[in-house]
Specification:
This protein has 136 residues and is mainly β. The chain is built from one helix and nine strands.
Length: 136
């Protein structure tokens, strides 16, 4: 039996800030979710964690609840944009890591919970590691 798929298609980059407040910057990740079934699937929850790889320093984590639960149409792919707000103190630590030992790798993990017609609260997890692109 095929499970729904979750793909991280665009990772948050330092040069992709979508909003800046007094004490935080907000980045955006795009998550592609594919429903391979001939029936609708409901995405109930999305949790995310963004952390540095080398020092295992967590920058931000939390639930994404905007527009959830979401119905995924049968045999369709849908893109969900997930904003992640990172406090400036975490960005400063990241900048220090990059300046000292070029630790500009981060890990982004998404955990989704979906309702299938035959199984409630089915978990799907995806993790990716990538390099943070600093603006020039």
């Amino acid at each position: 039996m095929v499970n729904p798929e979750c793909k991280l298609t665009v990772l948050p980059h330092v040069d992709k800030v979508i909003d800046m407040k007094q004490n935080r910057a907000t980045f955006k990740a795009k998550v592609s979710i594919t429903n391979p079934y001939t029936c609708q699937v409901t995405v109930k929850t999305i949790y995310y964690t963004l952390k540095t790889v080398k020092k295992d320093r967590e920058m931000v984590k939390g639930p994404f609840t905007e527009n959830l639960p979401k119905q995924l149409e049968q045999q369709k792919q849908e893109m969900i944009q997930v904003p992640m707000s990172v406090r400036y103190e975490h960005l400063m630590k990241l900048t220090n890591d990059i300046g000292v030992d070029w630790d500009n790798m981060y890990e982004l993990e998404f955990k989704l919970t979906v309702d299938l017609p035959w199984a409630r609260d089915h978990p799907i997890s995806r993790t990716t590691i990538a390099e943070i692109q600093m603006p020039l």
